[in-house]
Design goal:
0% strand
Length: 90
Amino acid sequence: MNWDNIQNFSSNIVFGFLLLAVTIYWINLFFFNWTNNLIKIGKLSAVGANILLFFILCSRWIIAGYFPLSNLYESLLFFNMDIIINISLY
C-alpha cells in the first residue's frame, strides 16, 4: 500500500468521524437536551478525527520533506485540526 492510498483512506475516515460528531451533536441538541453520554461520543469522534488529521499532516511532512502548509489543501487540513481542537475543549 502506498502513502497516497493511506492518506486518502485516512481522509475518508476523518470525514466519517466528523460527520458522526456533527450528527450526534445535532440529535443531542434537538431531542435529548444535552445528554452527557452522547456528548462524550461526539467528543471521542472529534478526538479520533484530530489524531488522524495529525497522522495525515505528519505523513505528508515525511513524504515532502517540509512542513505541509505549502498549498491550500494542507493549510485547510491544519486549519480544520485547529478548529476541532478549540471546539472540542468546550
